[in-house]
Amino acid sequence: MVAAIKLPGPIVTRLPRRVVAIAAAAALILAAAALVVTDSSALGAGPALVLLVVLALRCYPGERVLAVLMARRGRQRARAGTTAQLPPSADITPPRGGLLLARSLAVRPPPAALAAS
Amino acid sequence: MNVRLAPVLGAGGIVALLFPASAQAHGIVGRADLPIPLWLFSWAAAIVLVVSFVALSVLWTRPQLQGERRRRLFRLPLLVDRLASLAGVALFALVLYSGFDGSQVSFVNFSVTFVYVIFWVGIPVVSVLFGDVFATLSPWRSCARATRSIGRRLAPRAFARPPLRYPEKLGQWPAVAVLIGFAWLELVYVGRDSPSTLAALSLAYFGVMLAGMLLFGVEAWTGQADGFGAYFGLLGRMSALCSDESGVVYTRRPLSGLTKMPVRAGTVALVCAVIGTTTFDGFSNGVVWHKIEPSLQNLFADLGLHPTPALELAYSVGLLFCVALIMGIYRLGIAGVRSVSRRYATTELSSRFAHTLVPIGFAYVLAHYFSLLIWQGQAIGYLASDPLGNGANIFGTSSYQIDYGIISFAAIWYVQVAALVAGHVSGLTLAHDRALSMYHNTQESVRSQYWMLTVMVAFTSFGLWLLSAVGT
Questions:
Q1: Residue B233: its pLDDT value, please?
Q2: HEC readout, chain B
Q3: pLDDT value for B324
Q4: Are B406 and B30 in contact (CB under 8 A)?
Q5: How confident is the model at residue B241 (pLDDT cuts 50, 70, 90)?
Q6: pLDDT tens, A54-78?
Q7: pLDDT band at residue A108, thresholds of 50, 70 and 90?
Q8: What's the whole-number mean pLDDT along residues B18-32?
Q9: For residue B268, pLDDT beyond 80
Q10: The pTM is what?
Q11: How many interchain CB pairs under 8 A, A with B?
Q12: Nearest chain A Cα distance for residue B306, angstroms
């Protein structure tokens, strides 16, 4: 399912050295802060640290899943949009059989004999 | 339950030092009694942000907040506007009067509680709820407008337009200086609890603001050089209510006002200063600062400074460090966003995402000062009757006492956590909406938001740590 959806091509820009350097510095500061605090509350910095390291390595975890979900959502929206644009079904149902005959008769003028009487 | 009272986070150093008698009673509890460890709160908050990020990416596929769609509610009578302006001027006059003529004991003087609690903490909350109310209440703005109005009648040519044009390059840097200066007064200056000092500084500020508004124009000066006007104006943009110059009140989508926020020179620094100064208020009451501060003070003392200036200098360094740290975290996130696509320069990205920091700033302020507002805010009840602290009983409420049982410590903690998480989710939403309007490539848009997610998670964890570490 995941492979069936075509993802946009990879972005070719390189992560600047400065970003890596800043990320590394930030990680060091956080690690140093964790050492200074020396209690379990330092674990609170974990999520930010993990994200920072992962992104500095140019990984975007879950990106493909997000793309799949977004594509699915896009299709749903497109479908919903198409349905919403359709006029009410009564107006577009083509007349068939008896209804077709009735409609044909309804637009004819009445017979001349009946009109005269 | 091991509830340990300690001088404060929300009140920060200020309550402990300004209101020593009540500080112990209303200081925020040390967080040794949290039902689960802090790091679990931090991870849970991060999970909320990650889930919000995924939900936004999947469900929020078109920009929704970029256009500020207003819906007219009613027209505010001119009389109400004038009365509010008069009330602002009258309160300012009372601050001056009580500061100069009242008791110099800080916790019985109206001016100290009014400036540090009602003005500094109350107005931000009211601004987020009801829009930029300070624009009407501001005493210096009201006086400048009145002066201009009278001047136009007496000398129409001279007052037709401001004599000077506000320098564009200066932008909001004066406002940044004002905010950091006020934070310095509140958190660093040893004489901060002196009512007469506070009144003198208020009067000086009033004079500078009035002169600036008359020289450069009321609106230009208020939005850029009046630190409080600029700060409360930013927070007012978060509100679902707004008004125009003719007094018509409108509703709009909450936060949508921020997307139209004018970004000038110094705007990013202004928002970072709001977060950074609040950060320092919490940080300076925590165990880490108490380990660092003596060494820093000794360093300055060794350079020949007396203990008091050395202490103030050490705290000043801490204050500036916190502002710089917040700017650094934001710049790191922006550098990450820039690494995703070269379409926009770093400076432009920094400006375009600056508004996403405003809800975070408010979240920090609310989380940090919530207990101060709830508890010390009640003091206005008896201070209104006895503003000078000389035993008067004007409204018959001078015997009123602060009810510290109005809210439990646990409830305060949960309000703080909720404020922090909601503020950061709001920031993330604004960033996502802006990214959608900037990047036409979905992949670029999503990747840029990974970096903003990191910024928000970092700020949330940091904020929670600051709140929890106070007094422990």
A1: 93
A2: CCCCCCCCCCCHHHHHHHCHHHHHHHCCCCHHHCCCCHHHHHHHHHHHHHHHHHHHHHHCCCCCCCCCCCEEEEECCHHHHHHHHHHHHHHHHHHHHHHHHCCCCHHHCHHHHHHHHHHHHHHHHHHHHHCCCHHHHCHHHHHHHHHHHHHHHHCCCCCCCCCCCCCCCCCCHHHHHHHHHHHHHHHCCHHHHCHHHHHHHHHHHHHHHHHHHHHHCHHHHHHHCCHHHHHHHHHHCCCCEEECCCCEEEECCCCHHHHHCCCCCCHHHHHHHHHHHHHHHHHCCEHHHHHHHHHHHHHHHHCCCCHHHHHHHHHHHHHHHHHHHHHHHHHHHHHHHHHHCCCCCHHHHHHHCHHHHHHHHHHHHHHHHHHHHHHHHHHHHHHCCCCCCCCCCCCCCCCCCCCHHHCCHHHHHHHHHHHHHHHHHHHHHHHHHHHHHHCCCHHHHHHHHHHHHHHHHHHHHHHHHHHHHECC
A3: 93
A4: no
A5: very high
A6: 888 888 888 888 888 887 877 777 7
A7: low
A8: 35
A9: yes
A10: 0.79
A11: 117
A12: 29
Residue A49, min C-alpha distance to chain B (Å) = 8
Residue B122 is encoded by which pair of tokens? 């109350």
Q: B470 — phi, psi (to 5°)?
A: -65, 125
Q: How far, in Å, CA of B288 to CA of B134, rounded?
A: 36
Instruction: Print burial letters for B210-222: b (CB count within 10 Å at least 16), e (below 16).
Output: bebbbebbbbbbb
Q: How much is the ipTM here?
A: 0.72
Find chain B residues with C-beta within 8 A of A51's C-beta: 450, 453-454, 457
Mean pLDDT of chain B: 85
CB B272 within 8 A of CB B324: no
Cβ–Cβ below 8 Å for A41 and B38? yes
pLDDT reported for residue B417: 84
Partner-chain residue, chosen from B57, B331, B339, that has the shortest CB–CB distance to A13? B339
Residue B232 pLDDT greater than 50, yes or no: yes
A24 near A56, Cβ under 8 Å? yes
Q: Give B448's pLDDT tier (boundaries 50, 70, 90).
A: confident
Between B169 and A54, whose confidence is greater? B169
Please list every residue in chain A whose beta carbon sits closer than 8 Å to the beta carbon of residue B287.
37
Cβ under 8 Å to A: B residues 296-335: 328-329, 331-332, 335
Which whole number is the average pLDDT over B55-71?
A: 83
Contact B55, A62 (CB under 8 A): no
Task: Give yes or no for B43 touching A (CB within 8 A).
Answer: yes
Task: Identify all chain A residues contacting B443, using CB atoms and an 8 Å cutoff.
Answer: 7-8, 11, 63, 67
pLDDT value of residue B106: 87
Interface test with A, best of B439, B446, B454, B459 (most A CBs within 10 A): B454
Is B397's pLDDT higher than 70? yes
- Rounded to an integer, the average pLDDT of B331-335 is 89
Orientation of helix B123-130 relative to helix B357-375, angle to 10°: 120
